[in-house]
Amino acid sequence: MNRQMIAIIRMVPLTLVMGTIFFLSHQPGDSLTLPLLPGSDKLAHMLAYGVLAGTVLFALSEHQKNTKPRIVMVFTVAFCLFHGLSDEFHQSFIPGRTASVYDLVADCAGAAMACALWAKWRKRTRIIRCL
Question: How far apart are CA 93 and CA 125, in angstroms?
Fold first, then answer.
């Protein structure tokens, strides 16, 4: 399989996660049932955008991740930030839903935590490979 085909296949999880976030954001406010735990919606945002960040990292080439890991992390969080902005804008048009800066903060926090975990895992696997 050539590199271009591999790059396209690696984009599939990213596209599916973005589509799922869009679908969930498109649900009217009265059709959503979240647990009554305070902050559970923010945890859901962190989880969703952590998964989104993971799929962004998966979609990027190994060469990019190996040569410029910091730039890859900044790009990943920025990508998630812009997707979160568009998601909040989209939600502002859905009945019973509103845009929230706090949701956007949770989105970025989830993406940043996923990048931090990726960096830690990457560092750990580099150490193991050297042994």
Answer: 45
Dihedral sign from CA coordinates of 54, 55, 57, 58: positive
Least Cα distance to 54 among 41, 72, 68, 71 occurs for 72
Cα separation, 28 vs 93, whole angstroms: 10
CA distances from 61 to 4, 7, 39, 54, 130 (A): 11, 7, 35, 13, 22
pTM of the predicted model as reported, rounded to 2 decimal places: 0.88
C-beta separation of 94 from 26 below 8 A: yes
Q: What is the pLDDT of residues 57-76, one digit of tens each?
A: 999 988 899 899 999 999 99
User: Which DSSP letter does residue 79 get?
Assistant: H
Q: What is the CA radius of gyration of the chain?
A: 17
